[in-house]
Protein 1
Amino acid sequence: MSLPILTSAPGKVIIFGEHSAVFNEPAIAASVSSLRTYLLVTEAETSDIVELDFPDIGLDHKWSAAELSHVSMPSKVVAIEHFKNLNPELNAALEPLLKSLHGSLQYHAAYCFLYLYFSLCGTRRGVKFTVKSSSPIGAGLGSSASISVCLALAIGKLGGHLNSKPEKLTKLELDFVNKWSFIGEKCIHGTPSGIDNAVATYGNAVLFQRQANAETKSEQILDFPQIPMILTNTKIPRSTKVLVAGVKDLITRQPEIVSPILKSMGQLASRGAKILADLDDSNYADLCELIRINHGLLVSLGVSHPGLEIIKALGDSMSIGTTKLTGAGGGGCALTILNRDASPEDVEKFKSILENEHKYKTYMTGLGGPGCAFMSSEEIKENLPVIESLFRKQSSVSDLNNTLLPGKTNLKWVH
Ligand SMILES: Nc1ncnc2c1ncn2[C@@H]1O[C@H](COP(=O)(O)OP(=O)(O)O)[C@@H](O)[C@H]1O
Ligand SMILES: C[C@@](O)(CCOP(=O)(O)O)CC(=O)O
Ligand SMILES: [Mg+2]
C-alpha cells in the first residue's frame, strides 16, 4: 500500500478476569469507544532512515540505513513461530538499535515497533511512524495492545500482507493483525494473555480464553450492555510487565493457595458473561456482587494499590456503586459500576472528590465500539494538512477525537 497510511485501534476495559486470563482462565473485556490510538505512516525526510515519532512518551528516534542493515528479516512470516518464544536471533540483533533509548516506556514501544517492522517489512526505508493516543498510557486501559494493533495493521499493509480488499478488512486480515499484535504485546509485557489485542483488533466485547496450546478462543459479545460506569485513572504509574511477573512469582511461591483464586476468577467471568448477556433490574445486583468479589481476589494477588482503594472506599461509603481495579492494577484505573438508583448529584460529587481532592481523572465513556481500522491513502491525502496537524506534539485528546474518532467524524475509516 502506498503512503501515507493511517491506522487506529481502541483501548479496552477488562470487566472480569485480568491476571487470571494470563493463566488460561476465561475473561471479559470491552473496547472503549472514545479512547483510541492513531498511527500515521508518512515518507521520512530522507529516503535512507526509519523514524519513530511517539510524542506521548517523548520518543523521537531515527535509525540510519547503516544501523538497520545489521538486522536481517526472519525467513518466514509465520506468526505462530513467534508465539511461544520471540525469535532469539531477532531479539539479539535488535539490542544495539535499542540501547540509547531511555526508560521502559520508550524501550518497549521501540522494541515492539522494531520486532514487527523486521518481521513484516524489514527492507523498507524512508518511512516515519507517528503515534498519538487519546487513551492514557500505562493505566490499565490497554494502550500497549492498541499501539501493537495499529503497528501490526500499518506494517502488515506496508509489507504487502493486508491489501486484499480496499473497502474492508477481511476476517483473515483481522486474524493476521490479532496474531501479530499479540507478538507486539509480548515485546511490551512478556506474557500477555491476548485479551487486550483481541478486543483492540475485533472491537465490541469478547469472552476470551487462552488455551494451553497457546491458541486462543474468543467469543464476540456484540450487544454488550451499556453499563453505567465511571472509569477513574489514579495516574499512579505502574507497569503491566512487572505486575504480571509478580503474580507469576506468587503462584510459584504459593501454588495451592493462588491456583484456586485464579480458578475462582475464571468462574466469575463465566458467570458474569451469562449475566451480561441478559442484564436487567433482576440480576444487576448479581453483576455488582461479582465485580466486588473480583476486586477482592485481585487485592489478594497483591495487585491493588492504596490509591485504587481510595476510589473503592469512596464509592462504598457514598453507596454509589461497586468498584474494581481494571487492567494490571498497581495504580492506573478502576471502574465503578453505578447503582441503579445513584443520583446524578451523587455521581457528580463522587467525580468531583476524585478529581479535585485526589487529582485523579474520571471518564464516562461508552463500551463496545469498533475495533481496528485504516484510512485509504486517497482519504488521507485529501485531508492531509488537518491530519498532520493532529500528530504534532501539542494537539490535545479532544482535537484527536473531534477529527479522527471513527463513526463520529466525516472522515471515512475502513474496518
Ligand atoms: N501512544 C503511545 N505512544 C508510545 N508508546 C505507547 C503508546 N501507548 C502505549 N505505548 C507503549 O505501551 C506501554 C504501556 O503498556 P502497559 O504497561 O501494558 O499499560 P497499558 O496497556 O495499560 O496502557 C508503554 O510502555 C509504551 O511502550
Ligand atoms: C493483567 C492483564 O490481564 C491485563 C493487562 O492490561 P493492561 O496492560 O494493564 O491494560 C495481562 C493480560 O491479560 O495480558
Ligand atoms: Mg497493556
Protein 2
Amino acid sequence: MAMKIAVHGAAGRMGQRVVALASADSRYQIVAALESATHPAQGQDAGLLAGVGKLGIPLAVVGESDADVVIDFSVPDAAIAVLTHCLEFNKPLVIATTGFDVPQDDYIRESARKIPIVWAPSMSPAVNLLMKLTETAAKSLRDLPTGVDVEIIERHHRFKEDAPSGTALRFGKIVAEAMGQESHIHGRHGRPGERPRNEIGYHALRSGDNPGEHTIIFGMLGETIELKVAASNRDCYAQGALIAADWIIDKPPGLYSMNDVLGL
Ligand SMILES: NC(=O)C1=CN([C@@H]2O[C@H](COP(=O)(O)OP(=O)(O)OC[C@H]3O[C@@H](n4cnc5c(N)ncnc54)[C@H](OP(=O)(O)O)[C@@H]3O)[C@@H](O)[C@H]2O)C=CC1
Ligand SMILES: O=C(O)C1=N[C@H](C(=O)O)C[C@H](O)C1
C-alpha cells in the first residue's frame, strides 16, 4: 500500500522535485499538492507542473485530505499555518522550510508534543553526515594550544530568501556546542581588527542557480581543515524528505531530526 503524501509548497523549486520523485516511486502516492491561494498555478495539475506528466492532482489550498503525512517546503508563515492544520487533523509533518523566527521555533517544539514532526534545515543525507563529521572535528580540535578559527561559507542560488542558510546556522551551533565559541558574526568589513578566538564567522554567497554548498573551515597556525558538501541538484533534499516521511509515519508524537531518521 503506497504512502499517501501531501506536499506543501508544491509549485516551488523543492515542492516540484518532491512531486516528481514521489510520482516515480511506487512506495509513494501524491494525494494533495498545496499552494498559496494567490499562486498563479492554482488549479493546474501538480505532475504537469513538475514535468512528470498528468497526476490528476490539481494545486489547491490547504484543506482536509486523506494524506498519511505532509511534507513542507514553503515559507515560514505558511509552514506554521500548515503545522496548525496538521495539529488539527493529527497528521505527521516533515518540516524542511528554513528561516523561522524564535517564536515560530518555539511553536514547532511545542507542537511536537502532540504530533510527530521531523524538522531539519537540510534533508540531504550527505549534509547530515557532514554535520556528524564536523562535530567530531570540532571536539578533536577544541583544546589545540594554537587556537582554531572556524569560518562557515555557504553558497546558494540568487532566489534564496533567508541568510545565512538554516544549514549554515546548524553547522555553527554544532561547532559552538563542541568548542564553546560565544560570538557569531556575519561577514566582516571596515577595520574589525585581529580576529578574536571566541568567534564563528558566517559568509553567505548568493550566485546563479547553485542548489547549495557548505564549507566549514578550521583554520590553525600552519594548517587548515576544510569540510565541504555540495549539492549538484535538489534531489538530495527531496529524496531525504521522502525518506523522512516514510520513517515518521508510525512514530509517536515528538520532535525528530534527520539524525534520528538516518540513524546517524
Ligand atoms: N531542509 C531542506 O533540505 C531544504 C530546505 N529548503 C527550504 O525550503 C523552502 C522552500 O525552498 P524553495 O522550494 O527553493 O522555495 P520556492 O520559493 O521555490 O518555493 C516555496 C513555495 O511555497 C509557496 N508558498 C508561499 N506561501 C504559501 C502558502 N501560504 N501556502 C502554501 N504555499 C506557499 C511559494 O509560493 P509563492 O511563489 O506564491 O510565494 C512557493 O511556491 C525554503 O525555506 C528553503 O530554505 C530548500 C531546500 C532544501
Ligand atoms: O533554499 C535552499 O535552496 C536551501 N535551503 C536550505 C537551508 O537554508 O539550509 C537547505 C539547502 O542548503 C538548500
